[in-house]
Design brief:
By secondary structure, the protein is mostly helical. It has a domain at 9-62. The chain is built from four helices and no strands. The chain is elongated. The relative contact order is 0.05.
Length: 87
């Protein structure tokens, strides 16, 4: 979502330097700084379980039906482990 921010010359120079040193864009530096600021502001309010793991949702690979077929996956895993140890 586009947002416009006005900064003074000193802050602009500092932002450009931080972006150059970190190898990130100015937008990425602003996003990171803003996120850290907001986290500190709302620190008194505990995160919801969703907020605590939202960065990790959708980033894992594996079966898409794990919740429905967990028993089958466990049985297969135990069978495979047992077969490896009996060889």
């Amino acid at each position: 979502m586009p947002t416009s921010v006005r900064v003074d010359d000193t802050t602009e120079a500092l932002l450009e330097r931080a972006a150059q040193v970190s190898g990130k864009t100015k937008s990425a530096v602003i996003r990171a700084a803003l996120q850290q600021f907001c986290i500190k502001v709302v620190a008194g309010k505990p995160l919801t379980p969703y907020e605590a793991i939202q960065d990790h949702l959708g980033c894992f690979q594996g079966p898409t039906d794990l919740a429905k077929a967990s028993k089958e996956y466990l049985r297969k895993r135990f069978r495979d482990t047992k077969n490896r140890h009996s060889d």
